[in-house]
Amino acid sequence: IAKERPGTSFHFFSEEMDIRSFESIKLENDLYKAIERDEFLIHYQPQFNYKDGKITGVEALLRWDHPEQGLIPPDQFIPLAEETGLIVTIGEWILRKACTQMKDWHERGFALGTMSVNLSVHQFEQKNLFEIIQQILKETELAPSYLELELTENLIVKNKDLTMQTMKELKALGIKLAIDDFGTGYSSLGYLQNLPISKLKIDKSFIDQMLDDRSAITNTIITLGQNLNLEVIAEGVETKEQADNLLAQNCTLMQGYYFSTPKEADEIFNQYA
Ligand code: C2E
Ligand code: MG
Ligand code: MG
Ligand code: MG
């Protein structure tokens, strides 16, 4: 098309933009329908204590089984779900589903410690987030201490007062709070001290850099966690070398492909229960 109209490169670009927005409009429409069509599913990734090899919990990770495109990873539709506000409905769905799963495992004798669920900025800005979570726990009869919510630093610093208040309420109910992708965001160390959290998740990027004598960051986060009395878990551990190295630095909790990729609920039960 650009060839047919020499010099009109503007036209070429604008057409490209039209195509892109058409695709994103289609995806947006599909996203609206995905809930009622029951196209979302959860994969669970185990977390381990590397010292004794025991599973300590799982993280619930959202997947979209799109009718034409197949399984779509969250990075490809969560931003859109955030933009459109659909994340609120989807987030409520995943919380209910994950808590129901955890309760079911417990009833079948699989004594898993924590079910971790990721929360996004928009979800945390909902006024009634606390009531919704409380309601879901009541409905599913899951004790709050088995639920862990993963928040990012950017979420926490975005609306400090509201976030702090909601976090305090959630903690008072007995829910655990973890900071996801720790070290990549904008929270200050001074602020961290006052947060009602119980765990730091070291971002995968620091685990990747750790070998070749570059463990300064992981070491610092692990020590920080110890000093603040927080649990520390390493994310994205892919090799035995990394796992051994982390253990030598006194980090025992780990999650990553070296141990297991995210899997369907039944697979988790069959393998670890
Ligand atoms: P996250 O919460 O930091 O989750 C960890 C991501 O790293 C997951 O990707 C997981 O599959 C991947 N991962 C774990 N171990 C390894 C490893 O050893 N190597 C590599 N290369 N990757 C590993 P996933 O499932 O694609 O999720 C991406 C992000 O999407 C999550 O990052 C989280 O921020 C977001 N997300 C996932 N589910 C939900 C959800 O239900 N709600 C919200 N708000 N966000 C979600
Ligand atoms: Mg997470
Ligand atoms: Mg993470
Ligand atoms: Mg992430």
TrEMBL record:
The keyword DNA damage does not apply. Keywords: Coiled coil. It comes from the Bacteria. Residues 24-273 form the EAL domain. The keyword Coiled coil applies. This is EAL domain-containing protein. It comes from Chryseomicrobium palamuruense.
